[in-house]
Amino acid sequence: MLDVKKIKADFPILNQNVNGKRLVYLDNAATTQKPNCVIEAISDYYKIYNANIHRGIHTLSQKATQAYEDTRVATQNFIGAKASQEIIFTRNTTESINLIAYSYARFNLKPGDEILLTHMEHHANLVPWLELSKELGVKIKYIPLTADFRLDLSNLNQLITDKTKIVSVTLMSNVLGVINDLTAITELAHKFKAIVHVDAAQAVAHMPIDVKKLNCDFLSFSFHKILGPTGVGILWGREALLDSMPPFLTGGNMIASVYFDKVTFNELPYKFEAGTPDIANVIAAKTAIEYINNIGYKDIAKHESKLTAYALEKLSGQENIIFYGPVNTINRGSVISFNLKGLHPHDLGQVINEEGVAIRAGHHCCQPLMRLLDISGTIRASLYIYNDEDDIDILVKTLKNAYKVMGHVASR
Amino acid sequence: MSLQDELYKETILDHYHCPRNFGSINSASLKLEGLNPLCGDELTLYLKLNNDIIEDIKVEAKGCSISTASSSMMTEAVKGLSLDKAINIASEFKQMMLNKNEITVFDETNDDLNALAGVKKYPVRIKCALLAWNTLLQCIEGNNTENDNLKNSKE
Question: CATH 3.90.1150.10: does it fit domain A4-30+296-405?
Fold first, then answer.
């Protein structure tokens, strides 16, 4: 089991009071906190070997280049990729998905083709496709949800056909907490020669990612969800696919030769990394991978499952609570969405915040899902390795106070 | 007094629990939807005008306590006023919420509005308080532009 006390000590930010109360950080689905080692990796780069990469001949530049490329190899191993050049550094998951939309979909889809998404996608995996559908005249279809908030695959045969060219689906919902079994989807998609992108932005914090086992063609996530810095995401793609694609952004670093009247492009992965990247944060991302690996996903999952079960049980005792997601720990991560009947999530969020508890209140970048559930938003508590039962108890206590502050409101 | 008590003053909660002029007007002269994309607060504003007097006003609001209470107070404040006077109050209200240096205090007629002054201390909630007022201003402005266009086309 995890030694939460010891882990907590690695995260300096947690050792503070907010609104006069001990900070209880339960907004991990939005971003996780950073351990000392990650913070030090960033400052070491700036203090000791800050230099631009890939072009310099001097020692600092070589050192920085090596560290930057070390993260690529660490990421390759982290997700079981065949080659390190299959790892493209981006700013975040959103940029990764835009890269697929612009550099793959734009050149491979024609009017009448279809893209398949699900009703539980984050705006990051909706808006780029919606924009593209306007431009290309392609159709977007959705896998609906079952009453217990899981993907309804009963009509998959009608949803995936020879018109389907791209299937883009999340491995774990950032609202409902469910973890999706994508086996049937990828099998059928590949049968019809569609490519499959997996949005692993949430999942990567909770389970090991193996692109071979997932049997996908593209996968994306951001490091800030796994204790790493903001500003660094990755797109993984099969080498042949990436090779066939034109660059997304153009400029420095992504070129082979430039003349006044023509340009040839660099090889993978540099073709997709135009301009000076976020060097310090890419380097520190490797430290985050090491920190996660040292703890191990097995223990992370055990801890999360136990804590989620505890939270669901304690929250269930709260009057008028409505959960949006399974009230069990089967195939679900530690993201729990709920409302208290009659209270607006922002009012409830404010009451909770006053007690030093950081939760998220709102639509969580999933407005279509909120409309489907017919709510304006939810309260979302998302737990991670430094949270314990005490944190849950404090959250539950703040809820007891909510009706006292706000009064009961009849729904209009 | 805790921060919470200050934010959720009795007046605000009263308007939240029993919003005034809640509903729609079938024969509305003006109608406009307002939206806070960040928090999903929505409202539809209905105005019935008699020349330039706001004869009736109704709001269908779906939002948090601050946005609901603020829209309820807005309807009470501008009902029966001329459009120009309504614009003045709306501008004063925005001044109260947005001007860091000056303190705006409303007189007895509009005393309820003073209850919302505390929202200023919670920057993320200011937009909730402003939604109804901005929608009102846009609604009147849109009407003016329309009239101007009509005038221009006649000329």
Answer: yes
Q: Which domain holds residue B101?
A: 3-144
Measured in angstroms, the CA of B113 and the nearest CA of chain A are apart by 19
Q: Which residues of A touch B128 (CB under 8 A)?
A: 346
Q: What are phi and psi of B33, to 5 degrees?
A: -95, 140
- Please give the ipTM for the structure prediction: 0.78
Q: C-alpha distances in angstroms, B114 versus A189, A308, B61?
A: 60, 43, 21
**CA geometry: angle at A394 spanning A391 and A398, to 5°?**
140
Report the DSSP beta bridge partners of residue A362.
A378
User: Could you give phi then psi for residue A220, rounded to 5 degrees?
Assistant: -135, 150
Q: Which residues of A touch B7 (CB under 8 A)?
A: 350
Closest CA to A141 of A162, A163, A159: A159
| Dihedral sign of CA atoms B81, B127, A21, A351 in order | positive
For the domain made up of A38-293, give the CATH fold: Aspartate Aminotransferase; domain 2 (3.40.640)
Burial class (CB in 10 A: 0-12, 13-18, 19+), B140: buried
Task: Per residue of chain A (412 residues), give pLDDT as tens.
Answer: 899 999 999 999 999 999 999 999 999 999 999 999 999 999 999 999 999 998 778 999 999 999 999 999 999 999 999 999 999 999 999 999 999 999 999 999 999 999 999 999 999 999 999 999 999 999 999 999 999 999 999 999 999 999 999 999 999 999 999 999 999 999 999 999 999 999 999 999 999 999 999 999 999 999 999 999 999 999 999 999 999 999 999 998 888 899 999 999 999 999 999 999 999 999 999 999 999 999 999 999 999 999 999 999 999 999 999 999 999 999 999 999 999 998 999 999 999 999 999 999 999 999 999 999 999 899 999 999 999 999 999 999 999 888 888 877 655 5
CB contact under 8 A, B40 and A367: yes
Residue B154 lies in a domain: no
- Closest residue on chain A to B13 (Cα): A406
- Peptide bond preceding A247 in cis form (omega within 30 of 0): no
Considering CB atoms only, which of B3, B4, B39 is closest to A377? B39
Distance from CA of B17 to the nearest CA of A (A): 6
Q: Please answer yes or no on whether A406 and B65 come within 8 Å at the CB atom.
A: yes
